[in-house]
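Hello Y.,

Per our agreement to keep a running log of every chain we model this quarter, I'm adding this entry. I've kept the format consistent with earlier entries: sequence first, then predicted structure.
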Amino acid sequence: MNNPEDTKLVTLATSTLARSGAAQAAALRDTTGRTYVAVNVISPSLNLDAFEAVLTVALASGITGIESVVAAGQLPANVKAITDFAPTATVFHIDSEARITSCA
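Predicted structure for the entry above:
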């Protein structure tokens, strides 16, 4: 993770995770620099991991591209939701011990 803007995504994802108490949180930066956050959703009729949820929020706002996404907490399973939409996006995961790994 070399882009200083990605550090902001780490802060957004980890603070959203702590505030929400969810199992996963994700922060996304689009190609215009706008950011979006979301947590995983688990209910009897809807299940979204944090990647799917943050992509949904961003798409609802009309994004046309993604620069980077950072997930915190449990690793979301569907990184393909991000990479199918934006193959060149950087996708990272930060675990509970602050270790950052690339997902894509």
